[in-house]
Design brief:
It contains 3 helices and no strands. It has 90 residues and is mainly alpha-helical.
């Protein structure tokens, strides 16, 4: 059995009908996306977030270094207290 042009036309009509039916329920309309930011607003917000993220990462680096120094000071104080027989203060 071979397909004729008439059969192909029926297939095409059926596919068009199905696409139209699905388009009504699956495609976004302007009302659906009106709450979303436009391209410029999106990139402005992303720039602000990236700036904040960079600042936080730098702050974490500083705090990490500070924590190492504090830990080193605690260790040194404990050693001094031990060597001088001083009761550790809590």
């Amino acid at each position: 059995m071979t397909l004729t042009d008439k059969d192909f036309k029926k297939f095409e009509d059926l596919i068009d009908q199905k696409i139209d039916e699905n388009a009504e329920t699956t495609l976004a309309t302007k009302d659906d996306i009106k709450h979303l930011p436009n391209k410029e607003e999106f990139y402005d917000r992303e720039d602000k977030l990236m700036f904040e993220l960079k600042a936080i990462r730098e702050e974490i680096g500083v705090l990490s270094n500070l924590q190492e120094k504090v830990h080193n000071h605690e260790y040194r104080i404990e050693e001094i207290e031990k060597n001088l027989d001083i009761q550790p203060s809590l």
